[in-house]
Amino acid sequence: MINIVQEILEEPSLIFSYYNNVKIVILLNLIKHLRSMGKEICIVNLEKIKPDVLPPDFHSVCNEKSEVIVYEAEDEKEVPVKFTVIISSKKLKLGVRMIQIDKLGENLYKMKINNNVLHLFRVLNDYTIKEEQIGDVENEILKLLREYQQMSMREIVQIIAHKTNSSREEVRNKLYFLKTIGAVEIKEGIVSLNDYGWSKRESVLIVLGSIHF
């Protein structure tokens, strides 16, 4: 199963997003994971986080062994030489991997690493995310496009509606959802796979999981 926290922590990264709620959720997931590994965590700009958001027993410990998370860095000067993750609403120029989180719909977000779609996740409340696969209709559409590369929307709707016993309207809605998340492109009625490696995937995941402190 894909673990977005482990993916984030693979190397020093800048998490860029305008959405405060999702930034807090990512922060809490990072804290949970690092604590489970017995790591000490130093949060730079701790004063920018409401105290009641963090776990009651959490204490920021800053020493040479700490995993450093910089929260809401406003400019490059706030970033120490050694850090684990930066979370910011600014596209800071640091020469590190950038993870961008964009909102797609109600509580639905897309996480891109270096401009490649890697994860989707839906925030269920202030502190919880959950993992699941997308539906059979979407996967059937992607399988069809992997085989034929591109097809007209009309052809796809007819084939998938028949194969999945779905209405044509439902299939069209699923196609536009796949377009929204960046899995396919639709131009002048022609549907093709997008250039994010979707053609090599067996399925697309909406990436989620529960936080328990």
How would you describe the overall organization of this protein?
The chain is an alpha/beta fold. It has 5 helices and 13 strands. The strands form 3 sheets. The chain has an 8-stranded mixed beta sheet with strand order 2-3-4-1-5-6-7-8, covered by helices on one side. A 3-stranded antiparallel beta sheet has the order 10-12-11. A hairpin with a 2-residue loop joins β11 (184-187) and β12 (190-193). The chain is elongated. Residues 197-213 have low confidence and may be disordered.
Descriptive key words:
disordered C terminus; 5 helices; 28% helix; alpha/beta; elongated; 213 residues; three-stranded antiparallel β-sheet
Q: Please, how many helices?
A: 5
Write out the strand line-up for the largest beta sheet, numbering strands in chain order: 2-3-4-1-5-6-7-8
Taking pLDDT < 50 over at least 5 consecutive residues as the criterion, the unreliable ranges are 197-213
Helix content: 25-40%
Give the percentage of residues in beta strands: 25-35%
Terminal CA distance reads 21 Å
From the helix content, strand content and strand pairing, which structural class follows?
A: alpha/beta
Order of helices and strands: HEHEEEEEEEEHEHHEEE
> What's the average pLDDT?
85
Largest sheet: 8 strands, mixed
Shape category: elongated
Rg estimate, integer Å: 20 Å
Number of strands: 13
Please describe the topology of this protein.
Layout: H1 4-8, E1 13-16, H2 20-36, E2 41-44, E3 67-71, E4 85-88, E5 97-105, E6 108-113, E7 116-125, E8 128-130, E9 132-133, H3 136-148, E10 150-152, H4 153-164, H5 168-180, E11 184-187, E12 190-193, E13 205-206
Parallel strand pairs: 1-4, 1-5, 2-3, 3-4
Antiparallel strand pairs: 5-6, 6-7, 7-8, 9-13, 10-12, 11-12
